[in-house]
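Input (structure):
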């Protein structure tokens, strides 16, 4: 791809961001991420060891920070205080690393974002110098509020985390894309490569996924498919699709100069 994804002033060739959970082991994690071409990988600090447990395997040995941009996230946090505390720990573990993914969940069944707590945590983190990418609802008003706070990217869900249901409300996503200046990255709900392509065709700046790859029958092959889906969707967006003509057919070949006329 000739154009880059820019987040917090840094350019990335890949517009696919991937998670590191739910794989069989760290070896499969690395193989799938290599196949995806992703440069940004997100890590659940509460669930994955990146140095806080000295006697356990360390993910950073498999995904070194000099090769990948590690994006610590607050998966499993249900309050602003827990999320802020978790990301402060991540910054210590990653030697002052500022780029983080904030998510504050509302309940354990839907994993839907708790937006009041998300906004509260975002304000605190931005004031403390974090570069905040934030998981949020597909509400354009809330997304605008997060941008106004100073978040470097907003990440509305396509559908529930881990559901694989795809993009359930493209109209809300389009409103967010049209209003915001910071990158809009679809986060949660993608199930297959066509979902990723649709998100990119809408004009999203990127797609983040985990379960869709990790729980595929062949995660490495699915990672490769997702890479292609994101690239194809982005190229189609840049090309500009033909207008929809609900009640009008248009022949593919010229109608002038036909034989016999």
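Output (sequence):
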């Amino acid at each position: 791809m000739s154009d880059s994804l820019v987040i917090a002033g840094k350019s990335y060739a890949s517009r696919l961001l991937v998670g590191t959970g739910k794989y069989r082991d760290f070896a499969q994690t690395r193989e799938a991420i290599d196949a995806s071409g992703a440069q940004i990988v997100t890590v659940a600090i509460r669930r994955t060891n990146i140095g806080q447990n000295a006697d356990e395997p360390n993910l950073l040995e498999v995904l070194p920070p000099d090769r990948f941009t590690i994006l610590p996230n607050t998966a499993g946090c249900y309050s602003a205080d827990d999320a802020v505390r978790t990301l402060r720990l991540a910054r210590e573990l990653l030697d002052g690393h500022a780029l983080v993914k904030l998510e504050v969940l509302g309940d354990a069944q839907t994993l839907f974002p708790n937006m009041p707590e998300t906004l509260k945590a975002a304000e605190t983190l931005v004031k403390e110098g974090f570069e905040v990418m934030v998981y949020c609802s597909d509400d354009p008003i809330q997304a605008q509020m997060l941008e106004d706070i100073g978040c470097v990217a907003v990440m509305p869900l396509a559908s529930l985390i881990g559901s694989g249901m795809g993009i359930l409300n493209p109209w809300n996503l389009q409103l967010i894309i049209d209003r915001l200046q910071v990158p809009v990255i679809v986060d949660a709900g993608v199930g297959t490569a066509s979902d990723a392509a649709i998100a990119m065709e809408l004009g999203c700046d990127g797609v983040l996924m985990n379960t869709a790859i990790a729980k595929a029958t062949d995660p490495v092959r699915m990672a490769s498919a997702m890479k292609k889906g994101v690239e194809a969707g982005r190229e189609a967006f840049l090309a500009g699709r033909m207008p929809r003509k609900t009640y009008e057919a248009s022949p593919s070949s010229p109608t002038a100069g036909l034989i016999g006329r």
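Notes: Strands lie at 5-7, 10-12, 16-19, 40-44, 69-73, 99-102, 131-136, 153-156, 185-187, 206-209. The chain has eight helices and ten strands.
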